[in-house]
């Protein structure tokens, strides 16, 4: 696995920072944003492509491509796929769609996501949507999933960028196996361009289909990495959907990686999947920072507090719900 995030460019560094409750949100330095009402975000800093991407490509490519290439090559290296090994691989058996591997059509998968919108037009677009926090004087407190202090914004935490890659790699090659991908689902409720369905119908359907496709009972799931973008419109609806699907399971723990890195947009699901896998690997789940005054109607017993917690993860669920009602839920478990 590998990541490029506001909290580090290595999956272990990234997760250790999450466990310590470090926020990756800070003042934007990439360009002059003094004319914008939002001047904070989750920037990628101290990033280098040295040794991973040829200089001539580094000068020409957009950042999201550089993030993806660098993280992808690091993930290959982490799985022991050197240039020598690459020469021996049957490229027809290599792919980027996890379903191909589950169907037995592929042996090697490189999967992930990348995004980079930390540019004036990207910031301006989300400002125009009234979707960003204006907590410029206290950036680390901007992203507040499930907290009643959402200010006036739909999405708190500005924009972050990142990528991750994970390999579906056969045991016979001797690669380290971090977790087992059990399955997942994709749904689209098409209720509204930006708002989730009031009853959480699309989210509930997505989670239930993921459980069914994976052959997992709801009692088996004891950790959820929630989508939870720090939006008044979305946080409580997702929480209610989780209660609908899993009940008041006293063993269930729920957190939001976005409390520390904001919304990574096209890379968010991939990076948060790494967090879920790292929870399985380490036996630790990261805190929910900035959860000081929970939203009305929420029972915080399921939510991880301000400090990391020990947890023997049986099955982990990672949720990602995008604009337009695009929903995804995937499940991981310890490899046995």
Automatic annotation (TrEMBL):
Pfam families named among the record's database cross-references: ketoacyl-synt, Ketoacyl-synt_C
UniProt-recorded Gene Ontology molecular function terms: 3-oxoacyl-[acyl-carrier-protein] synthase activity
Domain of life where this protein originates: Eukaryota
Domain named Ketosynthase family 3 (KS3): residues: 1-334
Keywords: Transferase
Enzyme class: transferase
GO biological process, one term: fatty acid biosynthetic process
SMART domains the record matches: PKS_KS
Enzyme nomenclature, EC number: 2.3.1.41
Entry GO CC: chloroplast stroma; mitochondrion
Assigned protein family: Belongs to the thiolase-like superfamily. Beta-ketoacyl-ACP synthases family.
PANTHER family: 3-OXOACYL-[ACYL-CARRIER-PROTEIN] SYNTHASE II, CHLOROPLASTIC, POLYKETIDE SYNTHASE-RELATED
Protein name: beta-ketoacyl-[acyl-carrier-protein] synthase I
Source organism: Malus baccata
């Amino acid at each position: 696995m590998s990541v490029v995030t506001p909290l580090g460019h290595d999956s272990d560094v990234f997760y250790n920072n999450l466990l310590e409750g470090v926020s990756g949100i800070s003042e934007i330095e990439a360009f002059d944003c003094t004319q914008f009402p939002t001047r904070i975000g989750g920037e990628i800093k101290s990033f280098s492509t040295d040794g991973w991407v040829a200089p001539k490509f580094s000068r020409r490519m957009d950042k999201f491509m550089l993030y993806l290439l660098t993280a992808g090559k690091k993930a290959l290296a982490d799985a022991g796929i050197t240039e020598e090994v690459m020469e021996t691989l049957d490229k027809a058996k290599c792919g980027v769609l996890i379903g191909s591997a589950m169907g037995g059509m592929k042996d090697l998968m490189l999967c992930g996501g990348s995004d980079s919108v930390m540019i004036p037009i990207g910031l301006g677009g989300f400002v125009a949507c009234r979707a960003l926090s204006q907590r410029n004087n206290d950036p680390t407190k901007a992203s507040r999933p499930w907290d009643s202090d959402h200010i006036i914004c739909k999405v708190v935490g500005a924009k972050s960028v990142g990528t991750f890659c994970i390999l579906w790699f056969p045991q016979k090659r001797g690669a380290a196996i971090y977790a087992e991908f059990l399955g997942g689902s994709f749904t689209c409720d098409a209720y509204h361009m930006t708002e989730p369905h009031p009853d959480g119908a699309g989210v509930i359907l997505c989670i239930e289909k993921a459980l069914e496709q994976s052959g997992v009972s709801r009692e088996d799931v004891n950790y959820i990495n929630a989508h939870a973008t720090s939006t008044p419109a979305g946080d409580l609806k997702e929480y209610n959907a989780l209660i609908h699907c899993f009940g008041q399971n006293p063993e269930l723990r729920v957190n939001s990686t976005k409390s520390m890195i904001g919304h990574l947009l096209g890379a968010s699901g991939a990076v948060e999947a790494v967090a879920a896998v790292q929870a399985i690997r380490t036996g630790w789940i990261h805190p929910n920072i900035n959860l000081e005054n929970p939203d009305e109607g929420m029972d915080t017993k399921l939510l991880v507090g301000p400090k990391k917690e020990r947890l023997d993860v049986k099955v982990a669920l990672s949720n990602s719900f995008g604009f337009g009602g695009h929903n995804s839920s995937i499940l991981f478990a310890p490899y046995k």
